[in-house]
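Weekend entry, working from home. Most of the wet-lab plans are on hold until the incubator is repaired, so I used the time to fold the two sequences that have been sitting in the queue since the last round of cloning. Logging both here for the record. First:
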Amino acid sequence: MSGGIAAYKSAEIVRLLRKQGCEVRVVMTASAQRFVTPLTFQALSGQTVHSDLFDIAQEQAMSHIHLARWADALLIAPASADLLAKMAHGLADDLLSTLCLAAQCPVYLAPAMNQAMWQHPAVKDNLALLRQRGVRVIGPASGEQACGEQGLGRMSEPSAICDVLMATDTTALLAGRKVMITAGPTREPIDPVRFISNRSSGRMGYAIAEAARDAGAQVTLVSGPVALPSPHGVRVIAVESAKAMHDGVMRRIDDCDIFIGAAAVADYRPAQVADAKLKKHDDTLAIVLEKNPDIIATVASLARKPFVVGFAAETDDLERYALGKLRDKNLDMIAANWVGQAEGGFDSERNALDVYWPGGHQALAMADKRELARRLILLIAQRRNENHTT
């Protein structure tokens, strides 16, 4: 636990984990002890609370090594902005930050801070770096904060945090499987300096690629132009246009087990691309458009098609349009989400999905896109396995 008013919620986390049969040991920073007492957590965990880096009661006074080797998982809740900065830059000046460097088990963060701090570029950069290194982030939630302000930054509720920790281990779900994912927008050139595109950030597709990698898959990510770092351990094929994305997919689809079309591919492109920059002359300009190839429909029509998952971003009548695409394009599953809403969708770090398949439906509630991607990959793996068993 690092310091923050949300530290009071950590007592319930310990209680719930003990109820699930977990053995829990608590490490508290000096700041955390300003909000709650070690005695509370000693009573709840049944174990001595650790706070001193130089604990002479530990073998060779190396409690960080002892705890790091003992743990199956490390959860930091609350995780303050200060703690995120220390982890991102490898600082280790107390027991908790030193433990983070020594830990070889999965590491989970439950951030908790003021909404303005959560939106600060430094915090965003630190989180992005930690996620690249495989740290798993739970939350935060949106709502009223202790300071009286509203917004993202509240620590997720203890039950939600424990659900993530106790979820089925996904590391072998897709072991040995080859997964191809498309992500981001496409750019359809008008002339050498202008193009038609859309607002897709690529975050959802990149999060799915990371989740598939964590589930043991060999992942190829065919990506349109985005401002995101390449996921570690994922083969990235960078493309610009819908035609280039189509060609990149079809060259590599033959030995693919699962195809997930998360890219926001332009439906149309200019029929003619000007060789030189178009000059402004008339009050209006007409551009003739022609259809782009439908990548996911092409993949789903293959004689030996992989398990095909489509995406549908809709502003209205979401279920009808999603089910229509599922049927008309011969998909195995489709993940539909609202765009143009107050929260979620394009340019957001959060989203919610309604997932449909022939005869079935599951709603995935609003969450951080990386958490949402993990839930989606679990559902895809389950459905694919059921299909193959059938």
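Second, folded right after the first finished:
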Amino acid sequence: MLPGGAAVKRPFHRRLWALLVHCRSMNLLAGKRILLGISGGIAAYKSAELVRLLRAAGAEVRVLMTAAATGFVGAQTFQALSGQPVYCDWNDEHDAMGHIELARWADFMLVAPATADTLARLAQGRADDLLAAVCLASEAPLAVAPAMNRGMWQHPATRANVSLLRERGVHVWGPAEGEQACGESGPGRMLEPTELLQALSQSFASGRLAGVEVVVTAGPTREPLDPVRFLSNRSSGKMGYALATAARDAGARVTLVSGPVALEAPEGVERVLVETAQEMLQAVLERMEGCRLFIATAAVADYRPRHPAQEKIKKQADELVLRLEPAPDILATVAARTPRPVCVGFAAETQELERYAHRKRLAKGVEMIAANRVGAGLGFDSDDNELLLVWEGGSRRLARDRKSRLARQLVDEIATRYFPRSGEEKAAGHHAKYSA
């Protein structure tokens, strides 16, 4: 028992719980784009703390307010907390993105507080203010955190609107029960910011790969010509790092074996830095014990100099002949092991994408190939990509999108095909916890 009894103990436990939620959310929300809609309710003051917590967890946050919401908390407060302009009206001078681009920006959209009027407008598919229009236009997951008087929450009209939103796939988080601003007590309080933070973070934790050991390779390799020069390629490593993050968010234990890139290691992922194809192969093989999924995203050199010079090569002749030999084939080596993990490879092609993807899958003996075109504005050095997934007897195209979103789609496809039962019941149970 702490000194002071329960009156001291409860605040201590609340602070400890908030710290644990924050640490968990740091992994799952880092780099995620959260669009927070705020409607006109007194609970809008809680949303300021939610923005602060999201930023502390590494998320990018943009705030969209109704005109009524600005009567409770000023837009400048949210601009200061988010570090971004606040969207309040169709005619905002800083709203250069437009409502469609704003809708596409988000990885997840949360309306908190969501008043009874807002729930009704969303259920009707209204688009006559910016918040409603963005909710209608966005393809990102949408959640609402109801906040209203208990009588309004329990009214059959509100219950019908909530039921309709749930049928359309909208997450309903809350409300909680307790004392309300009107002086009454009952269901209708918006969930606390820490609870919404946890619900948001868990929305990115599908559990589809819960407990699965995953090894991902990323980036280029460098094959030395001499002490100052090397053969390499234009791979930025962004796709591999996005896949490591997506696998982590799906509950996997992830090791990322990375060539030289200008990227920070994802939170909660073990990163091993290497340079040459041989070093990458060695690092991968050392981590095969217990590995159940291997995703070979790295752009590994096909050839390396047979005899790297020990001293800098001087410019002396009109031409220079380099003798090259095949570099180690990491994907084929792992696929040939017994036992071996599920193997997914990547293929960067400039032409005949589907034919070369199927050919590579058969040649390497792997379950799946994710192929993409490379060239100006595609693949290398880009934040966007598009993929063709091929497996025995089937294929699927993933339309051009941010690499972070493509990574989540690819991880979901892998989990569905090769790990169909991992974590599904846990994920379903989590969402039930936050629904009324």
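Plan for Monday: verify the second prediction. Residues 1-9, 16-22, 422-432 have pLDDT under 50 and may be disordered.
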